[in-house]
From TrEMBL:
Source taxonomy: Eukaryota, Metazoa, Ecdysozoa, Arthropoda, Hexapoda
Composition-biased stretches (Acidic residues): 337-350, 364-377
GO terms, molecular function: oxidoreductase activity
Pfam families membership: Aldo_ket_red
PANTHER family: ALDO/KETO REDUCTASE
InterPro entries per UniProt: AKR (IPR020471), Aldo/ket_reductase_CS (IPR018170), NAD(P)_OxRdtase_dom_sf (IPR036812), NADP_OxRdtase_dom (IPR023210)
Region (Disordered): 332-377
Residue span(s) of domain NADP-dependent oxidoreductase: 56-315
Organism: Drosophila grimshawi (Hawaiian fruit fly)
Coiled-coil residue spans: none
Name of the protein this chain belongs to: Aldehyde reductase
């Protein structure tokens, strides 16, 4: 990981001093220094900021706040708007293209190798750039292609899929790298066996696997596997999709979380994002609020200690939020099917604890140590 970088604009000297302490640098007097996310090197040789922004709205605010890693997708139907906003910021002189890290994705209806180059050219045209920094296969299951505008092809109330092997799709994506259309390629929502198959059957391995990760669903085995193979893990839904009306997930609104918020003078989202960065993944939260965008980046000037980390690690495991269960009968479906998931009995939890004890060294438990979940269920 390389040090944080900074961008200068006008502001007061007091704010400069605070950020200078974070960066270990002395900024120019009378110039505001925006804290930039540290970067991590991909196996392709390119560097990616450790914090990303999943584009919905407020791209201008995100750029001006200091975000440089933007995540979009063909399926989100916002590539044109994202590209226009970033290009406007470039034209205004607020950022250079080489400092932007842009991720987009190949949608499931375009798995046919004959479609990959054509649709990538279409995405480049929509974005208004001549290359994409990171191009991901959105999901291992291919959908039937009817036309580019139909994202979810349906027949008899069921999603219609195809039998195209994701290995063939991957090889077509490798050609995009050779053509200079994309710099790095990766996958999203792939399990360990599927990633291993790509590594064994292809000329290049994915530089990234973007999957669901949040404190109640940490996917430790998958993260460890990717780390061992030099694959960076990007975490979507990193907060667990908080809902203030029904106070879910419980950990996010718990008394334990409130204690951490008070201790560090941070929001629950900032606590979680910092925890995930320390865990070694790259979180990409969604936000349309300028305040939340600013807060989400401002997580590199505080640290969680061992007790904080143990409390967050003690959050009870929950179910996956994003299941794509409409295609769960497909042979390339990457997640556990409902019938394969063991019942969460006391015996099962004891077996899981024994399994984890074999895999991991025992951690010392402080007397009176608490978890974030404690006392809320």
């Amino acid at each position: 990981m390389i040090p944080a970088r900074c961008l200068t604009t006008c502001d007061d000297e007091e704010d400069n001093t605070r950020v200078a302490l974070i960066l270990g640098e002395k900024p120019v007097c009378g110039v505001k220094t925006l804290l930039m996310a540290p970067k991590i090197k991909l196996s392709s040789g390119y560097e990616m900021p450790m914090r990303g922004y999943q584009c919905l709205t407020a791209v201008h605010c995100a750029v001006e706040t200091g975000f440089r890693h933007f995540d979009t997708a063909y399926f989100y139907e916002n590539e044109k708007e994202v590209g226009e906003a970033i290009r406007t910021q470039i034209q205004m002189g607020n950022v250079a293209r080489e400092n932007i890290f842009l991720t987009t994705k190949l949608w499931n209806t375009h798995h046919d190798p004959r479609d990959v180059r054509r649709i990538c050219e279409k995405q480049l045209e929509a974005l208004g750039f001549d290359y994409i920094d990171l191009y991901l296969m959105h999901f291992p299951v291919g959908f039937k292609h009817m036309c580019d505008e139909i994202m979810i092809p349906m027949e008899a109330d069921k999603v219609t899929t195809n039998e195209i092997d994701y290995i063939d799709t991957w090889r077509a994506m490798e050609e995009l790298v050779r053509l200079g259309m994309v710099r790095s390629i990766g996958v999203s929502n792939f399990n360990m066996e599927q990633v291993q198959r790509i590594i064994q059957c292809s000329a290049s391995k994915p530089v990234v696997n973007q999957v669901e990760i949040w404190p109640g669903f940490m996917q430790k085995d998958l993260v460890d596997y990717c780390r061992y193979n030099g694959i960076v893990v990007i975490a979507y839904a990193p907060l667990g999709q908080p809902d203030r009306e029904d106070h879910s997930p419980i950990y996010f609104f718990s008394e334990g979380m409130r204690r951490l918020m008070k201790k560090h003078n941070r929001t629950a989202a900032q606590i979680v994002l910092r925890y995930l960065v320390d865990y070694g993944v790259v979180p990409i939260p969604k936000s349309g609020s300028p305040l939340h965008i600013t807060q989400n980046l401002n997580i590199f000037d505080f640290q969680l200690n061992d007790a904080d980390t143990r409390a967050l690690r003690g959050i009870k495991a929950k179910e996956r939020l994003i299941k794509y269960d409409s295609v769960k009968d497909h042979p390339f479906y990457p997640f556990e099917r409902d019938e394969e998931q063991p019942e969460q009995t006391e015996e099962f939890e004891q077996q899981q604890e024994k399994r984890q004890t074999k895999l991991l060294p025992a951690e010392p438990q402080e007397e009176g140590a608490e978890t974030v979940d404690q006392g809320d269920e």
